Automatic annotation (TrEMBL):
GO terms for molecular function: flavin prenyltransferase activity. This is Aromatic acid decarboxylase. The lineage of its organism: Bacteria, Bacillati, Actinomycetota, Actinomycetes, Kitasatosporales. Its EC number is 2.5.1.129. InterPro entries: Flavin_trans-like, Flavoprotein, UbiX-like. It is an enzyme of class 2 (transferase). It holds the Pfam family Flavoprotein.
């Protein structure tokens, strides 16, 4: 997670990954703690990550309880400042990496190979190892610099999945819009989920299910 607005997207992706039986290496950038605090009121602490994560994932984007009964044993948490952490090496086995949400600063850092923290280093490692990297960028409007950085990431093999929800899947709540974006992120990573209703084509009545 980097410090763009959109922590509900990250919560939805995390819940779905755990529900799909995936194990997760979690990195929360320093700036992401600010957005998490701003958007949820949760002050995320390295030393109490399990407790803070549990509290966060149990809440939906509408502030109501989310359906979440997956335990957190499948999560390995790494401090963003820990450049000696597992994911900073290509020899650490992962299936890929999802940056959700992705700030323009993170996009720039990964495009330029800065590796200024564990998040950026792990993303660069993911690219060099030719593993799937999905970048859910959240900013509007986008300037030319960011657009060029996104093209660089696309050229390097990343999937750029803007956090821009579609409205054709029958959304009636904020959580539906959040889950749509989270679902498209998981689609890009090849992870099965039931987060949104898929478009069935105009012959199917033009509806999604
Ligand atoms: C409340 C809040 C919301 C923010 N929203 C965005 C955003 O939507 N997109 C973005 O690119 N940056 C946003 N930022 C700025 C980033 O947090 C900032 O560029 C930071 O340096 C990103 O660092 P990171 O990529 O290491 O997480 C926001 C900052 C705050 C405090």
């Amino acid at each position: 997670m980097s410090g763009a607005s959109g922590t509900p997207y990250a919560a939805s992706v995390l819940r779905a990954l755990l529900a799909a039986g995936e194990s997760v290496d979690l990195v929360v950038s320093r700036a992401s703690r600010l957005t998490l605090l701003d958007e949820t009121g949760i002050s995320f602490r390295d030393a109490h990550w399990r407790e803070d994560l549990g509290e966060w994932l149990a809440r939906g984007a509408d502030g109501k309880p989310a359906s979440f009964d997956v335990d957190l044993d499948a999560v390995r948490y790494w401090s963003a400042g820990d450049l000696a952490a597992g994911p900073s090496s290509g020899s650490y086995a992962t299936k890929g990496m999802l940056v959700v949400p992705a700030s323009t600063a993170c996009v720039a850092g990964v495009a330029l190979g800065l590796s200024k923290d564990l998040l950026q280093r792990a993303a660069s490692v993911t690219l060099k190892e030719r593993r799937p990297l999905v970048v859910a960028v959240r900013e509007t409007p986008l300037n030319g610099q960011t657009l060029r950085h996104l093209v660089t990431l696309d050229d390097a093999g990343a999937s750029v999945v803007p956090a821009s929800p579609g409205f054709y899947a029958g959304a009636t709540h904020i959580q539906d819009l959040v889950d749509f974006v989270a679902g498209r992120v998981l689609d890009a990573a090849g992870v099965e989920h039931g987060l949104y209703r898929r478009w069935r084509g105009a012959l199917g009545g033009g509806s999604a299910d």
